[in-house]
From TrEMBL:
The keyword Membrane applies. The lineage of its organism: Bacteria, environmental samples. The keyword Transferase does not apply. Keywords: Membrane, Transmembrane, Transmembrane helix. The chain crosses the membrane at residues 9-29. Residues 116-261 form the Thioredoxin-like fold domain. This is DSBA oxidoreductase. It comes from the Bacteria. Pfam families: Thioredoxin_4 (PF13462).
Length: 286
């Protein structure tokens, strides 16, 4: 004899509603957790907590920022993307990579080579003057101290301002003014002065603080104020930033070590020690 017992129906309905509530709660909690994690990462960057785990997370975020930038660039100037991809490196091994002559020439275009211009090795520092990791690495002078001791190595600084850093591009533009007014020596001195600026702890006008630090490099005040509206500065910095298409830089700071004899290079991301540089150079020369 069949029975149509509906006594369990309310329990089933309650269970289904409970499951739906749990799923919904988990969904919104997950979104909140993601937001909280993002906020914490930002706090960690700004508080300069020196953890490599934090850096790796930040690097992934920067990859997304760069990807968004490239997608925008594809729409605005697809021909540029095509040309630069054509000149991109050919991978020789997991460590060494090879630049085409055209890419090698473009990277060194209008770049000031400090120390021995005819050296076998060039070390390029791609950096963002608002990035705390870049600031500490640059101010530690690891690259410069190494190159000063080496007879066959030279140095180039390259701007790589991350688009979401509010003042990074402005600092790069202003440093270019230092170059136009005082030459390459004042350009590098301007960069050093800007890396000493701790934007997050400053009060008042940040633009004013950036200007003040540039002038500490001995830049003429009147000439500097006239230069800040020069759109060529923006073009020069943008060209340096777009070099990542040849080198596939996805984080700051990044040190690019190039063998000038055969255009092979090795990319060292994050803060590197002198031993890391030596190993890379030995690999390129042997």
């Amino acid at each position: 004899m069949e029975t149509n017992d509906k006594s369990h129906l309310p329990i089933i309905v309650i269970m289904l509603l409970s499951s739906a509530l749990i799923i919904t709660t988990n969904y919104f909690m997950t979104k909140q957790i993601v937001f909280d994690v993002q906020q914490k990462i930002i706090e960690n960057e700004y508080e300069k907590i020196w953890w490599k785990d934090n850096y790796n997370i930040l690097k992934e975020i920067q990859k997304d920022e760069i990807l968004n930038y490239v997608n925008k660039l594809k729409q605005e100037n697809p021909e540029l993307i095509y040309k630069m991809r054509q000149n991109a490196e050919i991978k020789e091994s997991p460590e060494k990579k090879l630049l085409s002559w055209e890419a090698f020439k473009n990277i060194k275009w209008n770049a000031y080579v400090q120390w021995n211009s005819g050296a076998a090795i060039t070390i390029m520092e791609y950096s963002d003057m608002e990035c705390p990791f870049c600031k500490d690495f640059h101010n530690n002078k690891t690259l410069k101290q190494f190159i000063e001791k080496s007879e066959d190595t030279n140095y180039i600084f390259k701007n790589f301002p991350i688009p979401t850093h509010k003042y990074a591009s402005q600092m790069a533009f202003y440093a270019k003014c230092g170059e136009k007014i005082g030459g390459w020596e004042k350009y590098l001195e301007s960069i050093d002065k800007l890396f000493l600026l701790d934007i997050l702890s400053e009060t008042g006008s940040i633009t004013g603080k950036i200007r003040e630090n540039i002038l500490k490099a001995g830049i003429d005040e009147k000439q500097f104020d006239e230069c800040t509206n020069d759109k060529e500065n923006e073009i020069l910095v943008k060209k340096e930033f777009e070099e990542w298409l040849n080198l596939w830089i996805n984080s700051t700071p990044t040190s690019i070590i190039i063998n000038n004899m055969n255009w092979e290079y090795i990319s060292l991301a994050w803060v590197v020690a002198e031993d890391d540089i030596k190993l890379a150079i030995n690999s390129l020369l042997n």
